[in-house]
Amino acid sequence: MILALASLAFAANAAPGVSADRIVFGQTACFTGTNEDLGTHYRAGILAAFAERNSTGGVAGRTLELLALDDGYEPDLAAANAESFISEQPVFAVIGAVGTPTSRRIAPMLRNAGVPFIGPLTGADFLRDAKRYPNVVNLRASYFEEIERLIDYMIEQGGARFGIIYQDDAFGRTALRSYKALMDERAIPILARSAYTRNTHAVHTSLFSVEKADLDAILLVGTYAANSTIINLANSLGQDYLLANLSYTVSHELKELISDPNPRILVTEVVPDAGNYQSPIVASFQRAVSEEARHTQSDDPVNEDSLEGYILGRFVIAVLERMEGELTRENFLRNALSPEPMELDGWKIEFRPGSNAGSRYIRLTHLGAEPEIGKNGS
Question: What is the DSSP secondary structure assignment for residue 14, as one 8-state letter?
Answer without folding.
Answer: P
